[in-house]
Amino acid sequence: xxxxxxxxxxxxxxxxxxxxxxxxxxxxxxxxxxxxxxxxxxxxxxxxxxxxxxxxxxxxxxxxxxxxxxxxxxxxxxxxxxxxxxxxxxxxxxxxxxxxxxxxxxxxxxxxxxxxxxxxxxxxxxxxxxxxxxxxxxxxxxxxxxxxxxxxxxxxxxxxxxxxxxxxxxxxxxxxxxxxxxxxxxxxxxxxxxxxxxxxxxxxxxxxxxxxxxxxxxxxxxxxxxxxxxxxxxxxxxxxx
Length: 241
Prior knowledge:
single chain; alpha+beta; RNA Polymerase Alpha Subunit, Chain A, domain 2; four-stranded mixed β-sheet; 5 helices
């Protein structure tokens, strides 16, 4: 039996030495902690519903564990996915988010911010809102703006009901009329920047700007007017045949 222990004693001693070194390395390695941000993704939002509260695009994660393993951790390999399949209108809270992030078993997620995610869903409503043409500048002297014709006059919008009901009109980008001496038509985009609501389909409209030219009398300011015998202005007499 003693012979069995003494055979190949040098190899056994080397193995024992290596095992001891490895054991001291693993058990004696310092624990460290690092922090990084990972993207947050919402998926499977039920049809006809939309998220109406502020949901962060990223979450802050702190991971602790052996320093050598932490050094090989690549934050770009991780993300946080929250599945909204089956969710209903109202607020749904998601807790224990750290369980949705798979890190090596030797590591531990020590902190996650936010640790609880609240998602508020509302039904998507649609509406039709009138378009308002906006002009800038003043027409040349003597010219007058006769009117603005918009095609189409209304456009569709969609979003949460509370926001849709507060929208009374949608303006266009400003149309410069400062050098217009005749009527003209222009294609212009809608100036709409809703918080959650959005334009449904139409994003541009056509605006017909009708301009009245000065009359002959306005072009020749010295033209005399007809007067009555008492010197007061009167009607111009009709010509007799």
